[in-house]
Write a structure and sequence with these properties.
Blueprint (H helix, E strand, L loop, with lengths): L3 E10 L2 E11 L4 E5 L6 H9 L6 E6 L2 E2 L10 E4 L11 H11 L4 H15 L14 H14 L4 E5 L7 H18 L2 E6 L2 H7 L2 E6 L2 E6 L1 H6 L4 H6 L6 E10 L1 E5 L4 E4 L14 E6 L4 E4 L5 E10 L3 E8 L2 E8 L9 E6 L5 E4 L9
Helix pairs in contact: 2-3, 2-4, 3-4
Bound molecules: adenosine-5'-diphosphate (ADP) and magnesium ion.
The site of magnesium ion has 3 residues, from helix 1.
């Protein structure tokens, strides 16, 4: 049983309240990605689960056992850190075997477990080397190997790929996912990188300032963000935000400082409570189309970034910047006056005060 439950977890360091009423259920065998900006409390939360820090309040359960007072070594948890934390004077075999030796696991069994893990990770040929004789990616595998040999009920990864170059990071991402498919062990993976979160997670938990903002499947987060923070954090280039007043006309009209958008066919039910009020309108760059002229948002093009099959158009509208993702064949130049038309069906609306989503 490796289900993990966090109940009303709070954590303070002195006067600094770092985690606020965190509640989370992680099901057996799940690959959960915890994502949020630097300093939002991700590492602290992992360290609480591992037992490296004590909670100031709340309960942590692994299976049915409350583990708040269980020592880290008795929690059936293995953690992989960003800096790998390998012992420089030991060879790779001993690095991987060390924890098992401390636990007085019989020598033959240690050998069996180290070789099995080395085999899974493709590092059998390096077992006699010292860490400094390995590349960054190989060292990362050793750090993962050291976690595997412990045969934990839960793996915790704290930004394990952030010291690797971009190409290796992409490769290691899929290796860690593969490892999860093979071992089927519960894994919590921490990152500040929203692309890593989207590509790896069965479920993503988004944190901000010590609060959980949303916990959902990647596409659910992308399509139905619960608030403006989540909407802006996930997706690249980020969602555009525009302030507008909602007017009930025939359909809906959105009136901003520098634009008016008419949607005669739009159903007003989701915005009913906001008629004649200001809301924040969110539109992803891929939901803007470039129109020849007429209805839409009039902008001035600042920069066109060619990405290959598509271009990112960075434009100015009044005091706002707005980005559109369009086909690379669109021929436009900096300084051009353009019209962006957002699709009503793909607009997001947020309460201007609470920033909570209005329609999801
Ligand atoms: N041991 C500590 N003492 C005091 N403050 C800490 C300690 N550890 C973390 N913090 C503070 O807690 C907040 C969250 O830190 P952390 O969990 O490391 O964030 P993240 O991993 O998301 O970048 C930060 O403001 C950090 O300065
Ligand atoms: Mg951290």
């Amino acid at each position: 049983m490796a289900e993990l439950k966090l109940r009303d977890i709070n954590k303070s360091f002195g006067e600094t309240h770092v985690l606020h009423d965190v509640n989370l259920d992680i099901i057996d065998g799940e690959f959960l990605v915890l994502v949020g900006p630097s300093g939002c409390g991700k590492s602290t939360l992992l360290r609480l689960v591992a037992g490296l820090e004590d909670a100031s309040g709340g309960e942590i359960y692994i299976g049915d056992q409350q583990v708040n007072d269980v020592a880290p070594k008795d929690r059936a948890i293995a953690m992989v850190f960003q800096n790998y934390a390998l012992y420089p004077h030991m060879n790779i075999y001993d690095n991987m075997a060390f924890g098992l030796k401390l636990k007085k696991v019989p020598r033959d069994e240690i050998k069996e477990r180290v070789l099995a893990a080395a085999n899974i990770l493709g590092i059998e040929d390096y077992l006699q080397r010292r860490p400094k004789e390995l590349s960054g990616g190989q060292r990362q595998r050793v750090a993962v190997g050291r976690a595997i040999v412990r045969n934990p009920a839960v793996f915790l990864f704290d930004e394990p790929l952030s010291n690797l170059d971009a190409k290796l990071r992409v490769q290691m991402r899929s290796e860690i996912k593969k490892l999860h498919t093979e071992l089927k062990t519960t894994m919590i993976y921490v990152t500040h990188d929203q692309v890593e979160a989207m590509t790896m997670g069965d479920r993503i938990v988004i944190m901000k300032d010590g609060y959980l903002m949303q916990a959902d499947a990647p596409l659910e987060i992308y399509n139905r963000p619960k608030n403006k923070f989540v909407a802006g954090f996930i997706g690249s280039p980020a969602m555009n935000f525009l302030t507008a007043k909602v007017e009930a006309t025939q359909g809906i009209t959105l009136v901003g400082k520098d634009f008016t958008l008419n949607y005669p066919e739009a159903d007003e039910t989701k915005l009913k409570a906001y008629i004649d009020q200001e809301v924040v309108v969110g539109v992803r760059p891929e939901h803007l189309t470039l129109e020849p002229s007429g209805e839409g948002i009039g902008v001035t093009l600042e920069l066109s970034e060619l990405m290959g099959s598509e271009s990112y158009l960075h434009a100015i509208m009044g005091d706002n910047k707005i980005v559109a993702r369009v086909d690379a064949s669109e021929s436009v130049n900096p300084g051009d006056t353009l019209t962006f038309l957002p699709d009503f069906e793909n607009l997001h609306f947020f309460d201007a005060q609470t920033e909570a989503s209005i329609c999801n």
